[in-house]
Design brief:
By secondary structure, the chain is α+β, with helices and mostly antiparallel strands. It is 29% helix and 48% strand.
Length: 129
């Protein structure tokens, strides 16, 4: 495994750990300034919308957990993509659980020696009960 691949896998793990801890500043630090998120049924959004949406959820006492299964990483100079299968569980303070899973296609860009998320197409959806 190349050093770049190790670093990219580290970005995914750091993202999940920071999300579990509710550390939005760390999550934001893993994105480029011009990041774009694509989510079904929504207009594309960037870093400031991500920050705002995260802040809206912060006061709802949601607990997050998740796992990542990276299926493919391809590196092209200072750009790379990941195909990743995510499984996410959210639990409210009242004990309600929501489970989501699916794939993401993520493009990363290496800036100042660090891999950052630049584009993300998220196909995670509620699990069928």
């Amino acid at each position: 495994m190349s050093e770049d691949e190790k670093q990219i896998r580290g970005v995914v793990e750091e993202w999940l750990e920071a999300t579990r801890a509710g550390d939005i500043e760390t999550v934001l630090s893993l994105m480029t300034e011009d990041v774009v998120f694509l989510v079904a049924g929504q207009a594309p959004f960037g870093k400031e919308d991500f920050r705002r949406r995260s802040a809206e959820h912060a006061d709802k006492s949601l607990e997050f957990d998740g796992t990542s299964d990276i299926r493919e990483i391809k590196i092209f100079g200072d750009h790379a993509y990941i195909i990743n299968r995510l499984a996410i569980t959210m639990k409210s303070a009242e004990g309600e659980r929501i489970s989501l899973s699916g794939y993401t296609l993520t493009i990363l860009r290496k800036e100042n020696g660090k891999w950052l998320l630049a584009r993300d197409a998220n196909f995670v959806a509620p699990d069928k009960q």
